[in-house]
Amino acid sequence: MRMALLFLRERLAWIGFFVFLLVILNILFSLDVGLVAISIWYVNIIMVVTFSIFLLWRYVREVGQLKDFLGNVDSRLDEPHTRSLALSPFQEAYYKKIEDVFYDKDAELNDAKVQLQEYSDELLAWVHEVKAPLTTINLMLDHVEDLSLRRKLETEWLRLHLLVDQQLHQTRLASIEKDNYLTEIELRSVVYKEIRAMQAWCLEKDIGFDVGELTEVVMTDSKWIAFIVRQLLSNAIKYSPVNTEIIIFTEVDLTGATLLHIKDAGIGIRKEDMPRIFQKSYTGTVGRESAQSTGMGLYLAQNIAQKIGVRISVQSVVGEGSIFTLRFPLQNEYVKLTGR
Fold first, then answer.
1. Architecture of domain 106-179
2. 103 FRET partner, CA 20 to 30 A, in 54, 84, 162, 192?
3. Domains 106-179 and 182-338 share a fold
4. Closest CA to 187 of 211, 229, 215
5. Per-residue pLDDT tens digits for 5-25
6. Mapped to the 3 state alphabet, what secondary structure does the chain carry?
């Protein structure tokens, strides 16, 4: 229907000229006494029907040519194809022009993709190169005898390690579907591993953990879910005051899905910031008070969670802290996610 209306709009000049001829003809019939014996209505009907058939024929022909052209826009119109379309010289000229525009844009897009892939590969290689000296430095920290100095160095090393790790996962985000392996994992193993990795930071701020049993087994990707938990834990530690506690526990909701809660006693999130905390590079009100905020952690966590079927939600009260919740999908939701 829309195509027909567009066709008629394009042919308004034709229709206007036909109506003009029809009016002139009717005036001649009424003024010329020699044409009185001829039925003017008969002539009008014949002309309208003939013109309508002509318009219908042109519509079917031109729309068919357009669909054929658009269906083969990825390949040049060669000579046999041009003859099969029966294009007029005018149509052939503007079809060729459209083809040139498509090919120029495709070439630009391909160049941009190649440059982006090269940049991504270089960045990934750089991250891997940086991880090697970081590992060496971590081993060297064990030989620092001054306990206070060692803890400070371990904390700074951890922050640097988290930034590099964040960049690594950001680079891999575009190809997560190729590196996604769902398997059954126990939440306890993931959470305890990430807590141990944050130990130096927690000791510096005197932050403790109250961890539930976490005996639930969920179907997810162990590597990517570990990254999400890492981001939520690092945020909880970063924004919690000294000598506080982070509570981690699980429950099952009414649908039977497993929920993992990470609760801190930090500064909380303001109401006006809540709708935007998962947006890229958004640091919110807190980010203007702390140089440590990059606005990337929650953005990456949310994007990765969506790709592996996990849902992140948050409840927060300013001055009382926040609760971040991970909802792991049910078996039938995983079937939809994997397409199997």
1. Orthogonal Bundle (1.10)
2. 84
3. no
4. 215
5. 777 787 788 888 888 888 888
6. CHHHHHHHHHCHHHHHHHHHHHHHHHHHHHHCHHHCCCCHHHHHHHHHHHHHHHHHHHHHHHHHHHHHHHHCCCCCCCHHHHHHHCCCHHHHHHHHHHHHHHHHHHHHHHHHHHHHHHHHHHHHHHHHHHHHHHHHHHHHHCCCCCHHHHHHHHHHHHHHHHHHHHHHHHHHHHHHHHHCCCEEEEHHHHHHHHHHHCHHHHHHHCCEEEECCCCCEEEECHHHHHHHHHHHHHHHHHHCCCCCEEEEEEEECCCCCEEEEEECCCCCCCCCCHHHCCCCCCCHHHHCCCCCCCCCHHHHHHHHHHHCCCEEEEEEECCCEEEEEEECCCHHHHHHHHCC
What average pLDDT score do residues 93-103 get?
75
Its CATH architecture, for the domain 182-338, is 2-Layer Sandwich (3.30)
Domain residue spans of the chain: 1-71, 106-179, 182-338
